[in-house]
């Protein structure tokens, strides 16, 4: 007859741990699908971290105390637990990607699958920026970053604890080691979160404290000697912290950081209470979710990505179906992958089991690598999509030669009739300028550098003035002498991605911290009235100085589409959607109203001309990144040859017949700026 369980003996099955897994995976899944108002559901991952640390420390410490701990056996047990289901998911998304993804996206998926299988994906995603940015939904295996962090922790923890045990074989030494490492990691996390938020999110050194907190919880022992009411209070307090974090936090907060203590300490309280018979953790639904939490976690995110791929993320019917499918795939994975793999790999001889599992990892990893090396297997694609992608990337010829390193180039014939200066937007527009020239013998002179604002009196965050070898610094130093050596009658057109310098880069969802690029003495963290006035004064002064010696024109900024136009267009075409990629005129106005005002000020102060690309790229309601299945941009903000060619009539106002050249501006001083009216 089975003896009643002692309150101090470890139960065969910890219902509280299983219940916490169920809560954690529910929070994460509902958050990712946008259900239930769980804006802080991402904190479920932090609950998983504490649980993993608790369990791993318990396995290692008990093994050391009993004199039977093997580091290799520990690694093998973790591999049996994690790899089988992960292999199946990676293989599954590679098959789905073959059917659904364009080459660029499929190549990226192959890279992500490879990195996920070898537990390096956290570092890969770090290089690709933030967890909460808009592009996350094109990363089908983004959620594996947490598995990579855990695996890296699993590799190091047994080595460290074994070394401590050899020096001082007692539990107190292990507790002290956990405590020191916890403190170091927590301080690292807080420091990194302020200045390197993405690094703090993805890297082990800033996440280890959460797993070590679980280890500390184990080493400090549970509170089974406390009265039942006290244990109930501990448990209730812990659950309140976990659930409160899921509902009250959101992705705008610094994470991880101080607030991460809410779900992690909540998990510790529940573990300390150790109530193995509480209804919340023993009911059928919670037990089912907890047991399948790993497989559900693995499968849910690819389905989130799939919803976004088809644009159905806002439709409740499709969202509900995707959640149900996540649970169904979790059940199938648990029943037919996790459990059988665990049993068979444990039953087989170790050598054959290891070889078999590694063979599967290598097989799927090799397939993923082939996808990467073949650049996404473009042969899969319909010919019209490949043609569109090829034409979309047709940029200005000699771009590498003529952009940067203070290189001056002439496009067209030797008879120079127009001067262009600026940044990469000037290079992107030069094809249209050449097309506007009346004769093939005539040419366009260009001097441009990447992210290089050709304005004196301002410094550039990306091109420090102290770096004399920097291409932009050289260009600015070279510019006065170069212009002085050219005919003063030649008109000069200044073309920049102008708004980026006073305002910072334009992100689709404002997920990344934006810093203005230009400054006078000290870099600005954000745009302020003072920094904008500083920019305006320097810009107008610099432009008007140039206008003293020759005709000068300022080109309005081209629309920034916020998405990579060829990629979005190809995705739509693959789905049978032939709609154009567009941006509303209102969005353009919000982005560029300040620069229009600054350019208007220069026009009014010293008579510089204004060239407006909007009549050629926009209609009354929206601006076009593509037209009739043809991309006009190479990315989200640079025109390709087709897009630049549309601006030829605009440049013809400067270099065309004399009666056209007399039209020095497309907007007279009395007309309204874009903050009032956008139509030219």
UniProtKB/TrEMBL annotation:
Q: Which chain regions cross the lipid bilayer?
A: 20-38, 44-61, 82-101, 151-167, 174-194, 200-221, 233-249, 317-337, 352-372
UniProtKB keywords: Acyltransferase, Membrane, Transferase, Transmembrane, Transmembrane helix
Q: Which GO terms describe its cellular component?
A: membrane
Here the segments flagged for biased composition (Basic and acidic residues) are 665-680
In this record, what's one Pfam family? SGNH
Q: Which GO terms describe its biological process?
A: lipopolysaccharide biosynthetic process
Spell out the molecular function terms from Gene Ontology.
acyltransferase activity, transferring groups other than amino-acyl groups
Q: Where is this region: Disordered?
A: 657-680
The Acyltransferase domain is annotated at 15-328
Q: Which residues form the SGNH domain?
A: 406-653
Record's PANTHER family? ACETYLTRANSFERASE (PTHR23028), ACYL_TRANSF_3 DOMAIN-CONTAINING PROTEIN (PTHR23028:SF53)
The protein, known as: Acyltransferase
